[in-house]
Design goal:
Layout: H1 13-25, E1 47-53, H2 64-78, E2 81-82, E3 85-93, H3 98-111, E4 116-119, H4 123-136, E5 139-142, E6 159-161, H5 166-179, E7 184-190, H6 193-208, E8 212-219, H7 227-236, E9 240-244, H8 248-259, E10 267-270, H9 275-281, H10 283-286, E11 290-293, H11 301-314, H12 320-339, H13 344-353, E12 365-366, E13 372-373, E14 376-381, E15 394-400, H14 402-405
Parallel strand pairs: 1-3, 1-4, 4-5, 5-6, 7-8, 7-9, 9-10
Antiparallel strand pairs: 2-3, 11-14, 12-13, 14-15
Helix pairs in contact: 2-12, 3-4, 5-6, 8-9, 12-13
């Protein structure tokens, strides 16, 4: 809605009353430092967001329609409009193909007038989409992918890595397992950007804690047969077998480890395990496993309220990717509302300048490299006897402050942190 100029001195009492009534019905504006409402300049009269997702493969359960649902909930909770202008959402399946993700991102920015892309589950697809967003000077906010490259050597001024990354998984889970006596590791790693980053980051943490890496093996994305990898892991005699994979690959690897009896003599460390994975495998298989999370549905009244609403729609509890997408959508929309524009530089500046406080994160902040800084949690999967109701799976072992969980600025090569 455009703001019309009025000469206040000439307003009659009747006009004043009418204007006050109109203001009460309108979307409230965030005032700037000079106590003036922002000039509204939203391109095309629409705030359009796009989600790039895995809709039909190994990450379908941990992202997929669950992420779409979470973002729709955020748009609804926001009110469905910004300054009277509609919020639109589109989504597409990138099929875990980097070239397809890049092509779709370019199409959306060039011809579909998309203002922001979200999620982008999977690291290779995210790296591709980020490059396009950088070229087109458009906002991209990622809750799905994990590679720490997104805020390190591949950082950009237009991208936000919102929920987690491979460095945090390594710092929290890796350090916790080593301190518990698991000082020799063998990795079973997904052979693409995410797996490579996770193994690299975890190896550095393990070595820094006095542990050693005795070997590793790479497996193709979306593997069904892990038998040969398990035999190599057993032969290594490592105390810990680290799973540097995710989604369906993690589920299949854990199943195979139990079938081969690996867990009788070696400890299994799932570096990225979602509540969906625990639900699919059951507590008898996953009990005692330690894992790193940014969100658990049963932590407090706020998380339970959101999660039960989500459950009504999806018939499962949300994970950190889905709840992170909800939170990041609200933060983006609040930025558009506060600034009155969808201009990339303006929106990014507001998002970095303002803290994030919602059911997903308290006192979150976006660092100059795009890393959203927040506390992370180390959980242990409950024994079946400890679980009192459906989806009661985790017990909190430790809360890790953001500065300890994520890569310190001093270690990063991102030039945005060197200014």
């Amino acid at each position: 809605m455009r703001t019309l100029p009025f000469r206040l001195a000439s307003l009659t009492q009747k006009c004043t009353a009418a204007l006050l009534s109109l203001a009460a019905l309108s979307t409230p504006l965030h005032l700037n430092a000079q106590n003036k409402a922002p000039t509204i300049n939203i391109s095309d009269g629409v705030v359009k967001m796009g989600l790039l997702l895995d809709m039909n493969s190994l990450y379908e359960d941990v992202a997929g329609m669950g992420t779409v649902t979470a973002v729709k909930m955020a748009i609804e909770d926001f009110g469905g409009k910004v300054h009277g202008m509609p919020i639109e959402l589109v989504y597409a399946d990138h099929q875990n193909k980097a070239d397809l993700a890049g092509t779709k991102a370019r199409e959306w920015f060039d011809t579909q007038k998309v203002d922001m892309i979200g999620d982008v589950a999977a690291s290779a697809t995210a790296l591709s989409a980020v490059e396009v967003a950088k070229q087109k000077n458009k906002v991209i906010i990622m809750s799905g992918p994990g590679t720490s490259r997104l805020t390190n050597e591949n950082c950009t001024a237009v991208s936000v890595h919102y929920t987690w990354d491979t460095y945090a998984l390594s710092a929290v889970t890796g350090r916790g397992v080593v301190k518990g006596g698991g000082d020799s590791w063998f990795f079973i790693t997904a052979d693409y950007a995410f797996g490579h980053s996770l193994e690299k980051d975890a190896s550095e943490v393990i070595k820094s804690e006095g542990g050693k890496i005795v070997g590793s093996v790479k497996h193709p994305l979306n593997s069904q047969d892990f038998s040969s990898f398990m035999l190599q892991a057993q032969a290594s005699k490592a105390k810990v077998v680290g799973l540097a994979n995710a989604g369906g690959d993690t589920i299949n690897a854990i199943k195979s480890a139990n079938e081969f009896g690996l867990t009788k003599n070696q400890k299994l460390a799932g570096l990225l395990v979602f509540i969906n994975d625990v639900h699919a495998l059951g507590l008898n298989v996953t009990k005692g496993m330690q894992l790193t999370e940014a969100f658990y549905w049963d932590m407090n009244d706020e998380t339970r309220k959101f999660s039960r609403r989500f459950f009504e729609r999806m018939k499962k509890m949300p994970n950190m990717l889905q709840s992170g997408s909800y939170s990041s959508t609200l933060h983006y929309l609040n930025a558009v509302k506060a600034t009155g524009t969808d201009d990339t530089a303006t929106v990014m500046a507001w998002m970095k300048a303002n803290p994030i406080n919602d059911m997903f994160v308290k006192n979150g902040r976006i660092r100059e490299d795009g890393r959203m800084m927040r506390d992370m949690y180390l959980f242990e999967v409950k024994d079946p006897s400890e679980s009192k109701y459906p989806w009661d799976y985790f017990k909190l072992k430790a809360t890790i402050p953001a500065e300890q969980a994520f890569m310190p600025a001093s270690k990063s090569v991102c030039p945005l942190l060197k200014k």
